[in-house]
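Changelog-adjacent note: as of this version, every example in the card shows the full chain rather than a window. The one below runs 464 residues end to end.
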Amino acid sequence: MQLTAPSKISVGFVSLGCPKNLVDAQYMADVLRADGFTLAPAPETADVAIINTCAFIGPAREEALAALRTATGWKKQGPCRAVIATGCLPQRRAAETAALLPEVDAWLGVDGLDEIARVVRKALAGEHGRIEITPQATRLFNPKSSGVIFSSGAYAYLKIAEGCNHACGFCAIPLIRGRQRSRPVAEIVREAESRLAAGMRELTLIAQDVTSYGRDLGAPQPDLCTLLRELEGLGGKFWIRLLYGYPSRVSPELLELMAGSSRICAYLDIPIQHSHPEILRAMRRADSIEAVADLAPRLRRHIPNITLRTTCLVGFPGETEAHFQHLLDYTREAAFDHLGVFPYSSEAGTAAHGLQPAVPAHVAEARQHRLMQAQQAIVTHKLQQRIGTIDEILLEKNLSPEDNIWVGRSRREAPQIDNVVFITGLPGQARPGDFINVEYTDVDGYDMWAQPAGPDMQKQAEGC
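Full-length structure tokens:
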């Protein structure tokens, strides 16, 4: 079953879901390269297609199944010789999904990232339908310092912890990813140094809950502020961004550190899920009620220019029109800069599964639409106010070399999930990873247009 020339075998990745999955895909790519495989420029051209899946809610599973079906089509029509499903979907529902997709060659859970080369070899040698899943995820992986970076711009995701200790009634993440395991500070700093040396200019720290970082580590117990201070000490010009936090874990110490930092973006993604105390209790998030009540004004008192992103869940069992109206009024008053809304998905094994009274799907979807309509008006107003102001932008790529249109982001926008800034009129020596001051000129939906600011305007952008 041993392959004699792995260097001639290419592997391609499709990574679905959140940035944490992308980090896992990067880790597997490093394992495969170390074992002699090469990375294909596109998954459809590879000898082996690896679909790293998400299974958080129903639509994510549907997307994963569609991607796997597409990949098995590559096996019928092109060079693809094997399809491997990895990540959350196998961890959550390997046996039943394997029955639906017998064409998939192997299923590997979240604890088996370092086994990917062995699994690929076995699939190529003819072993079909292999399932490798641990009953509960317990492992923690430290990426190689000089490893693969799959991000599309001058940013890198640093996964600082795995798993989650919260017990939200709707959430399957603890069932999939297990309890929280934090990486050591020294390992994260070492990875950060290598990413900066590779030209990355934004370090985006990610975990199921970054604000709980270190709580599982022994004495002397580090916390998120400990880690941030270590990262701040690294040399060069770069940003640090935090994704994602828990409302009651945003400490005054963290806010004070962010307010006084030139590196840490004044940006927090704090999913509230809901605003009404009755729904939060039903969601098993009662410990967030007090923090949610005044979240936006409290954070803005500490950091006036902070950018706030949140996520809301509508249609949770028992949510009445009055409950939803409370959420709608709350979000209008809070005026979040970025907001995502998801209809409730009943997940087997969670505390809320089968909870009654259920909210009809069409009602939940209508509430999602109403909330997003209100948010669109908020965002349009906020973006219009930025026209004519000066800001610092991190350049990501030249979107249209012929027209010299670049795309970038300010400290207000997280990669992949938020809007972008289109920049025209940049000089020919501009490069991805450059920081440049711009003047906003127009709004385009959720995005903005800008042009380079004149030299006399440079100082206005300091501290943005």
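Structural remarks: The two ends are 58 Å apart (CA to CA).
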